[in-house]
Amino acid sequence: MKTTLYIKNMVCDRCNSAVMRELNALGYHVESLELGQVVLDQDTPVEFTKLEKILQELGFELLIEETDVLIEKIKTAIINKVENQDHSNLSTYLSSTFSKSYPVLSKLFSSKEGISIEKYRINLQMEKVKEMIQLGELNFSEIAYSLDYNNSGHLAKQFKHETGMSMTEFKNQRKWDRKSIDDIV
């Protein structure tokens, strides 16, 4: 029987590499690895206590409860949606991905994380905006379009509301006050 592990805070390819390296060092045979999920080959006994300790040292957390696993999958889906600049409707996307109604997902997420799914998405988008401003490859209108805002004015207003400064002020200060994705919640 295969063993599937769910791991919190795996948000990028470097996270995958770090987890893969540690699992290999411990002698585990990994069949597949994706953000937040590892499938071990058949007949691989898992020493959960040791694995949990090593993952915690790397900033990850082994998830046991079903609701925690679902929350982490929701986060990963939203992260992928923002990173891939997917313009589909978030509530429809999550409902179809998890085969649950959006109000159920939203209530569960809010009760566990203390913020709404929408607020989490906005926080991710603001960090993406900061990254795009820092890279300097797109103007504000192009950034707004790429993140599916109706116009740059809407993005500018939301950025100011969330960060306390305008996008121009952020760009000019050159103090890139950015959060790591796994620090957003």
UniProtKB/TrEMBL annotation:
Keywords: DNA-binding, Transcription, Transcription regulation. Residues 72-173 form the HTH araC/xylS-type domain. Pfam families: HTH_18. The keyword Transcription applies. InterPro entries: HMA_dom_sf (IPR036163), Homeodomain-like_sf (IPR009057), HTH_AraC (IPR018060). The keyword Membrane does not apply. It comes from the Bacteria. One of its GO terms (molecular function) is sequence-specific DNA binding. This is AraC family transcriptional regulator. It comes from Kaistella carnis.
